[in-house]
Fold each of these.
Amino acid sequence: MTHPYLTGTTAPRVLAHRGLVTPRDEALGIAENSRASVTAAALAGSEYVESDCHITSDGVAVLFHDSDLRRVTGDPRAVAAVSYAELAELMAERGGLLTLREALEEFTDTRFNIDVKAAAVAELAGTIIGEHCGRVLLTSFSDEYRARALAAARRAAGGLAGADRPATSPGRGALIRLLLAVHFGSESARARAFKGLDALQIPERQGPVRVLSPRLIEAAHHAGVEVHVWTVNDPARMKELVALGVDGIITDRADLALEALR
């Protein structure tokens, strides 16, 4: 059965990578994963926003990609070393800080793709997401973080109306096992590898290794799993990937993608 997260706009899905920051917004100092970037994605017509979460020193789950603040704010401290108030002040002129709870409660027409970036935030993120399972896809490069967050989401969703878990995409280890099963395994091995997944969110290549292939797309679709490719910013390449059978494009330029693919 298709997860509610994937019953929104018909494919190809456009997932706004860390919101939407146009060159003009960037020149104004707007940062990725900020309130302004998520608002811009929604205003551009993107139903899906991909984001990341970390935890502050006082236990607030916030939308932030890097483990430290250096690239986004110039501050060398780790996200986990600053309080919510400190981070909010640093982000005030960069589009505004957005917590995970605020994102889910305020952007009610948006479906979020949340990447859990740290062990310390996994359970909290899952608990928050558990109240909104029908419009969240939860993932992480770490299979451990993903499993912990999914378990917390299931507990939080108990008895609530709607989906009993968020949608999910595999972590790094699970993806490697899946790729091996697709290319070298039996039909039963492939079925086991895809079990419990709703989407494969992958790059076209990882270094010299080609990840995306027609065989992988075919196997995923046979298992009822969508394929979303990141991070694609060239409209011509977006169209080529959709022609290959890709179901979703994760992009920094959701505005260009929506124009090219609609």
Note: The first helix runs from residue 23 to 27.
Amino acid sequence: MDLSTVNFIISVHSLKQLPEENLPEVAFAGRSNVGKSSLINKLLGRKALVKVSARPGKTQGLNFFEAKEVYFVDLPGYGFAKVPKAMQDAWQKLITGYLEARKTLRCVVVICDLRHPPKQQDTQLISWLKLNNIPFLTVYTKADKLSGNEIQKHANALDAGHTINASDRIIFSAKTGKGRDDLMAALDRFCGLSS
């Protein structure tokens, strides 16, 4: 995957604004403050292409970033974002509409915090993706915050809670870069691209 140039294209707030379906797409989903922006920045080899915020709910649209061969789509975080319920409902409708209808969507990267037990919203999203035959890959972030033994123990608990196999997830750290190469290789496969 060629990441030599990556540009922000559009923040989509309505399905009518979606760009033309001319490139494979990878969407990134996760709870608010799970480290989604940091993961995307590390993956793309950029410091601050995707804005990192301590305030949950910062991403409010579907943010499209274009590399030469693929779109990366940053979805609004779900969970404890302190925004009105009507806005959360609008996000949900937008995200669901996008995930269900987008023909060029090749993979949804579901990001979970490795330090915490399985969260119901993550499990629901994974179950929904399975039910709708939408390809996904689970990434457990913040591995640098745990020791080697803790990493494996927590990953096993998350695998069991989300009913996924160890082969269906990657352990990642935006701080150290752990898992970046594995994630890139997996996304190349999903998108039918060579490294």
Note: The longest strand covers residues 105-113.
